[in-house]
Design brief:
This protein is of the alpha/beta class. The protein is built from 4 helices and 7 strands. It is 39% helix and 24% strand. Helix 4 links the parallel strand 6 and strand 7.
């Protein structure tokens, strides 16, 4: 074999091994395909599933309920995609408010209405073990990151207290 042919084969082999190593050790983000489950004059609700669809644990994630809280939307979606690499099924409800999304009161009310009309019935009939509603706030509101438990049921309070004790999240009952 000629020297040039050996070099080309070695380069091709190194590229193949490098591609394999890169694929195996990089995060495998899940692409989520969404279906529209609600569409009204105030906005849309889309539902997508990622992670292990046959997992024993399911998390429902709701983003965009308050459209001005943009800091929480994309990071939560990316975190869900990455977390979906674990043995968990993630149901993502993506809320898009189109009627007055930048008006504080109207935008919030419209997002909450979309969740009430489309997400609540769907998530109630799902196999979700936990529901996460993602929010963000101005720096002068509250102290850092926090977990809230609107229902105040025992399971939610217990989980929030554990999160507060083992992370940088505060718990606001």
């Amino acid at each position: 074999m000629q020297k040039n042919t050996k070099i080309i084969i070695m380069i091709a082999l190194l590229l193949a091994v490098g591609a394999f190593v890169f694929y195996e050790f990089s995060p495998h983000y899940n692409n989520i395909t969404y279906d529209t489950i609600g569409n009204t004059s105030i906005g849309t609700v889309e539902k997508g599933i990622s992670g292990n669809v046959s997992a024993n644990k399911t998390i429902a994630l709701i983003t965009g309920i308050h459209p001005r809280e943009k800091l929480s939307i994309e990071p939560e979606i990316e975190a869900a995609k990455e977390f979906g690499n674990n043995d968990v099924k993630i149901i993502h409800y993506k809320i898009t408010v189109t009627d007055h999304p930048d008006d504080y009161d109207t935008g919030r009310a419209n997002g909450e209405s979309l969740v009430h009309d489309f997400v609540n019935p769907d998530v109630t009939s799902s196999d979700a073990d936990a529901v996460i509603i993602s929010h963000s706030h101005n720096a002068d509101y509250g102290e850092g990151f926090y977990v809230a438990t609107p229902e105040m049921d025992n399971a939610s309070v217990e989980m929030a207290e554990k999160i507060s004790k083992t992370s940088d999240f505060n718990y606001y009952p």
